[in-house]
Each structure stands twice: as structure tokens, then as C-alpha cells.
């Protein structure tokens, strides 16, 4: 079968960022003829600046400015030569000062991103392994990807999960020499810390463990001589730790710094560390500014600045504690995160703050999970206490307004972040113009109403759903048990606006991943059948595809009904303990995309759907004429000559023995096809097909042996839709006798004989189905996950195995 087209993680990110840009909260431009750190002008509005990462305000220090200007006058705008050959005259002095800050050998890099690319591939040897905290900065993760080319194992663990880290260490300790754990010192979104002391305890327990910290957000405002958060905790740096600080951000200049206590490793990195060897060095102005900042760090003034910042941080924390604003992480870092949950609320909140004259940052996917959207606020020495008080007043006022404007609640935000909130808050109420019908079985739904709304799609008629409910209940294995949930939303007059059904069940996380990723994960599943699986609440079910959602888009309350549905899905997912909610299968250009994304769902590409609607022909030759010239040649060469080699039968009620054979053929295909990687269905499903009037089986027996070599499991929707849902084949004969292609053709002939109007050929093998005249429809789904870990883990594996 042809390989399914898979989603690229970058495409998803692009859509999310594009929507945020359209909302006017990202990709903004500062205006004006100058900057002072305290205020910034955006969209013509002068705003108090609460988005900087220059926490001590040193980027506006006149001493740094003067040093940079003087260096340009003396040495020019740059020194265009690799530092391996020669450094410009100011470098040695800066290196000496930075070494004094850390009391260890250091290397200065152009920036932290290039620094990680220089250091990680050099420090990590071929017989080592790397474990990444899944919230470690992108620049570290990106550099670690380079190791996979050399076959070095790189894996993710959940954020600050020491249990998961120790479990991973135990699993790989006998296979590698060193194990590198890479994390941030201070995390840039929530402002929380790495559990440094606990990690040192793990190092003592497992001497293989080495630590790699990116502490660029902990630099300067913390630690002796401003050495950063890691140095504040450790005081001295052991040889099994590599530490990155920055000369940008709080330090006030440009560049980054590696601290490497291991002198042998230090020499190797310096002699051949990628960008250190082949890239340009820092400009004289940047080195001079950094040197001036280093003088401040090496003086007692750094503690005055640190104390001034801590005063502002404490004041902000005190003010926030008197509000209902959901602060996600309570600590003494200068980074604060106010959760909004829904992206729509985040967009609205940030825009309100900008219009009010306060510049704050939006935190959104992929930096945070999509349902953990929020506002990132940073405090700096530029902020006066009255600015901070005005900020809190504005936050408190506009937060409530943003919640109301987007039909959100503080209770809902608390659930999204799993944090306590004020219990005396207003509960969300159902729109008085809407009424919601909820049911756990199709038996509870008016059959005529369902037929009118969704029953004429795929196998979504009442009989089809009764069949599915019967098949996927009371089974031995948990992956074969699904719960069914039906929603119909009407207006106050009882007129239906929206209808859908969802199922909850166990999914493989790699269901839509490339074949190579699924094959690698299936090896792990030999020992643990449920490795990398998640309980998912999904529109439709894994047995159906196509239109799972009816919406009367002309109704004035259609958007409100959709938002109500998404809220009900959120509540249901929480009740069921689902790790992910999925809305499927929508056309690529669906107008609902923007609403879904604002309500906390991100788009992912799905395999193409294949449909045949042209059945207006009366003979084989007329059918051939409906095909393209290339497809006609294909048909006459690969399909037509083989038909006579089979005895072709339409079986209505096969005996149990035959169903057992069919099931074996189905499992053959399932074992080879990882394009849509689901759990294998039990024989019970196929036995139920045999006793159901809507099911039939297209059987191919090879002449003269009369041996069954292929079977299609087909559902007949009485509304004129023929649906070949599953396939079984004997691979000993499939290629030589073109079994798959013959089954496709027999499907088309059967649908025509039944006078059906449409064939739903389903996902996958779109290249083959196109040859038979199928229309290819690009599809996408929208997902909401409890965190980004699964997505990032799969994306890392996709890069490794693709």
C-alpha cells in the first residue's frame, strides 16, 4: 500500500503563530526614536514594558553604551575572522573577567544557540546517551538533534520528572558510557527552576549521569558575581556539569558563555567546537559592552542591582496574592505566568493590556500546551513600583473582561493548569437560547432526527452505530472497549443547530506517525503492549471517517453552539481521564479552523480521504473512459487481465470457519501496514459482521486452487453509500496477482450493481485509489492534549527514524 502523507510539526506551529499574528499579539514592531527600558511604543501606544529579559536593566546602562561606542571608533564594527586564528584585542580581557565570575575555564560564543551547536556534539561522545527535559529550551533540543546522525540515543522525559529520569537511567545505563541530562536552570515561560539539588543526588547515585544546564534566564540577577541560578545553588561547579550562561539578556551585551570545569573537555571544545572554529567572533562593540558589564558583576554593585530586582519581584508577588489572578508558578524569579487556558482568552487579554498601555507577552503553543495559553510577564529594574501597581490593577480588571468576552471562567482555567482557584467564583452557565441533548447510546436518540442530521454519512446511520456499540463493549482487552457519547444542540424552539458523536478509547500515540516511527515503537510494545498509548476522546471513532459533525452554519447561534460543544467535550474528557481530545475529519480549508484554534485546539494533517462519486456508467468500457489516459493504461495492464484469475463472490453471511480465515487475512494486512497504526480488532467484530444485514464480504479466490487470497469488509448504508472499511490479503499472492487492485475494482463494480451513489474508500493508499477515479480530499484534525510531551516525543522520533 502507498505511504500515507504525514503532518509536519512545523506546519502546525506555522498555523498557530499565523493566527496569533492576525489577532495582533505577535510579530509586533517597537516604534519611536529611542528606547529607555521602562516604556515601549507599540501600535502608536506608549506602554510600560513588562516583556523584557534584561531583568537588571543593564542594556540601558550608560557605561555599557559608552564602551560599545568607543570600541567601534577604535576597532570598527566587526573583526571578520575566525577566533581560532586570532581574537580581536578586547577578547582576552573579557575572557579573564568572565572566568573570574565563574572561577572556572570558560568559552565565549556568538550566542547561546550557536554555543549549544558547538558544545553538545563535541561533549557528547558516540557511546553516550542524552535525556532532555521536554521543556528545555529549543536551542538545546535543536543541537541535540545533531547527535542522532551519529546514532547517539536522544530521548525526552516529562518536565522535572525525576522518577521518569531515574527510570530512563536504569534502562540505558548498561548500554552507554555517559548519560547527559539537559535542562534549563530557570525556565523561560513559567519562571520555575530545575530541581538542582535532587539532580546532584541522582548524580551521586548514578556516576554515569552528567548534567548540562542552560541557565541564560538565571544569569546576573542571581548568584555570586551574578553567576546565575545554578551557581547560586551549587556554589562550586563539579566536573560532571556543563553550564551555559549568557552575555545577552540580563548581562546587557551580546554573546553566551560556556563554563566547563573539565579541562580536557574544555580543550577539545575550544579546538573543535563547530561554530567556535568556523564562525565569526563577537563584534568589538559587543565585547566591550560585555566587559563593562563584567566589571559591574565583579563589583558589589551587582548585589545592589539584584536586591533592587528582588524588591520589585516581591512587591509584584505580594500584589498578585491579593487577586484571583491564576499565577501558575509561585517563586522569586522575574518571570511570571498568568494562565488563560483558551488561546482566545489569551489573545483578548494581551490585546486589552496593549491597548491599556502595558506590554506583556503571550505564551502559546508550542512554547506551552495549547490549553495552557497565558500571559508571560517579566519584571525588571526598569519598572518602578507605581508601574507594577498599575500593571496589577490593569491585569485584574482586564482578566475578568477577557474571560467574559471569550465565554471562559476562572474555574476552567484552574482545571487546565491543575491549580486551585477561588471557589467563590461565578460558574459558567448555558446560553439560555441553547438546549443540549446528551446520550451514551444511539438507542437514546430519536432515530428520525439522527437520520436527518448525520445518518446519511459513512456508517453513521442508526444501524451502523448500534453495530459499533455492540462490537466495542464487554471485550476482554481494554483497547477494544469504547464509550459512546452523543450530542445534539438545539435552539429554544427545538430546532437542531449541531449534532455529533464521540468515542473514548485507547489510541496508539503514533497512529499517524511515519511507518519507521511506528515500527520502532512496536518493538517496545512486544514487552509492553500499551507503551506510548493514550486514552483519547475523539469525534467519530476509529471505524468511521468523513463527516462526524453536523452544523447549521446559517443559524445565528451556530458559533455559540460549537463553543458549547467544545466545553462539553472538555468536561467529558476530564471526567473520563482522557489525555487528548480530537476533532476529525475536516476538509483542509474548513472555516471552523480559526474557531477551533481559539478554543484551544491545534491543527494536524490527516491522511487524505478517498471518495468515488461518478458511478454514471453502464459497462466496463464506459467506466474505463471515466479515467485519465494514464489510469486507463494502468487499468488495462494491472487490473483487467487479472480479473479472470479469480472466482469473485459476494458473501452475506459467512460461516464462523470462514470468518476465522478472513480475520487471519485482515491480520496479515494489519501486521504490514503501519500507515494508520491502530490496535488490531478482535475476531468478535468480524463475527458480528457476519450476522448483520448491512455487512457483506467481497471475496477473491484464486483459480484453480480456489484459495481465498483477498477479502474486503464492506458496509452498506441504505442512503446509497458503499463503504469498504477493512481489507485482508494473502501476501504470498498479492503482488503477483494484483490482489489489492482487483479488490478495489470489485468494490466499484459492486457499488454500481447496487445502484449506490457514492463509495467511501477511506484513508491511505490514495495514489492507488486515484487510479480508479477516486477524488482525493485533504483532511485535517484538531487536537487538544494535556501537555506537549507526546507531540514533541513523536516529532523527535520522526526526525530520528524518517
From TrEMBL:
One Pfam family in the UniProt entry: Aminotran_1_2
Keyword line: Acyltransferase, Aminotransferase, Transferase
Enzyme class: transferase
Protein origin, superkingdom: Bacteria
Record-annotated membrane-spanning stretches: none
BioF2-like acetyltransferase domain ranges (all copies): 630-769
Enzyme Commission numbers on file: 2.3.1.-
Names of required cofactors: pyridoxal 5'-phosphate
Domain Aminotransferase class I/classII large, first and last residues per copy: 52-395
MF (Gene Ontology): acyltransferase activity; transaminase activity
Protein name: Bifunctional aminotransferase class I/II-fold pyridoxal phosphate-dependent enzyme/GNAT family N-acetyltransferase
Amino acid at each position: 500500500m502507498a505511504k500515507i502523507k504525514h503532518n509536519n510539526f512545523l506546519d502546525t506551529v506555522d498555523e498557530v503563530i499565523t493566527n496569533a499574528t492576525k489577532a495582533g499579539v505577535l510579530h509586533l514592531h517597537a516604534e519611536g526614536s529611542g528606547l529607555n527600558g521602562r516604556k515601549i511604543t507599540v501600535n502608536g501606544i506608549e506602554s510600560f514594558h513588562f516583556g523584557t529579559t534584561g531583568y537588571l536593566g543593564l542594556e540601558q546602562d550608560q557605561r555599557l553604551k559608552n564602551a560599545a561606542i568607543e570600541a567601534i571608533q577604535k576597532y570598527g564594527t566587526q573583526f571578520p575572522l575566525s577566533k581560532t586564528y586570532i581574537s580581536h584585542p578586547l577578547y582576552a580581557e573579557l575572557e579573564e573577567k568572565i572566568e573570574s565570575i565563574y572561577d572556572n575555564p570558560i568559552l565565549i560564543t556568538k550566542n547561546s544557540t550557536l554555543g549549544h551547536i558547538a558544545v553538545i556534539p563535541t561533549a557528547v561522545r558516540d557511546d553516550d546517551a542524552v535525556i532532555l527535559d521536554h521543556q528545555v529550551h529549543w536551542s538545546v533540543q535543536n543541537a541535540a538533534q545533531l547527535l542522532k546522525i551519529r546514532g547517539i540515543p536522544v530521548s525526552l522525559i516529562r518536565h522535572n520528572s525525576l522518577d521518569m529520569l531515574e527510570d530512563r537511567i536504569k534502562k540505558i545505563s548498561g548500554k552507554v558510557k555517559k548519560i547527559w541530562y539537559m535542562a534549563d536552570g530557570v525556565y523561560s515561560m513559567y519562571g520555575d527552576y530545575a530541581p538542582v539539588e535532587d539532580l546532584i543526588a541522582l548524580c551521586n547515585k548514578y556516576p554515569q549521569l552528567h548534567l548540562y544546564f542552560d541557565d541564560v534566564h538565571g544569569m546576573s540577577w542571581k548568584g555570586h558575581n551574578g553567576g546565575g541560578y545554578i551557581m547560586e545553588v551549587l556554589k562550586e561547579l563539579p566536573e560532571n556539569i556543563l553550564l551555559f550562561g549568557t552575555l545577552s539578556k540580563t548581562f546587557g551585551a551580546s554573546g553566551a558563555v560556556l563554563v566547563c570545569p573539565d579541562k580536557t573537555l574544555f580543550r577539545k571544545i575550544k579546538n573543535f567546537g563547530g561554530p567556535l572554529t568556523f564562525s565569526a567572533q563577537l563584534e568589538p562593540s559587543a565585547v566591550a559592552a560585555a566587559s563593562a558589564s563584567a566589571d559591574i558583576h565583579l563589583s558589589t554593585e551587582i548585589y545592589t542591582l539584584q536586591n533592587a530586582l528582588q524588591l520589585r519581584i516581591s512587591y509584584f508577588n505580594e500584589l498578585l496574592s491579593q487577586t484571583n489572578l491564576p499565577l501558575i508558578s509561585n517563586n522569586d524569579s522575574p518571570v511570571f505566568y498568568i494562565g488563560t487556558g483558551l488561546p482566545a482568552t489569551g489573545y483578548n487579554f494581551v490585546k486589552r493590556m496593549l491597548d491599556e498601555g502595558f506590554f506583556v507577552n503571550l505564551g502559546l503553543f508550542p512554547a506551552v500546551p495549547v490549553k495552557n495559553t497565558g500571559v508571560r510577564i517579566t519584571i525588571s529594574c526598569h519598572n518602578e513600583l507605581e508601574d507594577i501597581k498599575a500593571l496589577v490593577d490593569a491585569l485584574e480588571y482586564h482578566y475578568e473582561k477577557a474571560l467574559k468576552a471569550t465565554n471562559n471562567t476562572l474555574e476552567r482555567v484552574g482545571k487546565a493548569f491543575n491549580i486551585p482557584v477561588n471557589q467563590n467564583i461565578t460558574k459558567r452557565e448555558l446560553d439560555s437560547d441553547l438546549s443540549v441533548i446528551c446520550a451514551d447510546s444511539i438507542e437514546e436518540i430519536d432515530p428520525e432526527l439522527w437520520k436527518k442530521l448525520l445518518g446519511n454519512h459513512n456508517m453513521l446511520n442508526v444501524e451502523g452505530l448500534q453495530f459499533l456499540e455492540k462490537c466495542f463493549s464487554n471485550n476482554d482487552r481494554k483497547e477494544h472497549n469504547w464509550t459512546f457519547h452523543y450530542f445534539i444542540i438545539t435552539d429554544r424552539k427545538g430546532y437542531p443547530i449541531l449534532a455529533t458523536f464521540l468515542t473514548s478509547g485507547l489510541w496508539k500515540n503514533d497512529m499517524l506517525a511515519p511507518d519507521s516511527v511506528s515500527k520502532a515503537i512496536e518493538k517496545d510494545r512486544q514487552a509492553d503492549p500499551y507503551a506510548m498509548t493514550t486514552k483519547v476522546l475523539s469525534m467519530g471513532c476509529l471505524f468511521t471517517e468523513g463527516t462526524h459533525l453536523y452544523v447549521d452554519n446559517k443559524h445565528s447561534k451556530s458559533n455559540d453552539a460549537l463553543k458549547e460543544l467544545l466545553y462539553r467535550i472538555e468536561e467529558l474528557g476530564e471526567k473520563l481521564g482522557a489525555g487528548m481530545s480530537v476533532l476529525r475529519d475536516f476538509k483542509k480549508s474548513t472555516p471552523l479552523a480559526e474557531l477551533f484554534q481559539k478554543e484551544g485546539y491545534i491543527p494536524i494533517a490527516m491522511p487524505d480521504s478517498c471518495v468515488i462519486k461518478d458511478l454514471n456508467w453502464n459497462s466496463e468500457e464506459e467506466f474505463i473512459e471515466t479515467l485519465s489516459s494514464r489510469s486507463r493504461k494502468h487499468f488495462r495492464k494491472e487490473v483487467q487481465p487479472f480479473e479472470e484469475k479469480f472466482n469473485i463472490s459476494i458473501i452475506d453471511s459467512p460461516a464462523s470457519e470462514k470468518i476465522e480465515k478472513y480475520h487471519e487475512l485482515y491480520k496479515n494486512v494489519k501486521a504490514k501496514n503501519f500507515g494508520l497504526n491502530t490496535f488490531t480488532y478482535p475476531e468478535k467484530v468480524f463475527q458480528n459482521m457476519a450476522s448483520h444485514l448491512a455487512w457483506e464480504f467481497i471475496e477473491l479466490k484464486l483459480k484453480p486452487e480456489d484459495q481465498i487470497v483477498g477479502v474486503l469488509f464492506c458496509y452498506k448504508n441504505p442512503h446509497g453509500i458503499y463503504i469498504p472499511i477493512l481489507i485482508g490479503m494473502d501476501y504470498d499472492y498479492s503482488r503477483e496477482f494484483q490482489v489489492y487492485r482487483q479488490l478495489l475494482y470489485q468494490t466499484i463494480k459492486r457499488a454500481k450493481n447496487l445502484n449506490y451513489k457514492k463509495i467511501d474508500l477511506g484513508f491511505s493508499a490514495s495514489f492507488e485509489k486515484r487510479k480508479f477515479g477516486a477524488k482525493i480530499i485533504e483532511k485535517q484534525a484538531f487536537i487538544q492534549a494535556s501537555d506537549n510531551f507526546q507531540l514533541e516525543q513523536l516529532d523527535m522520533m520522526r526526525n530520528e527514524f524518517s
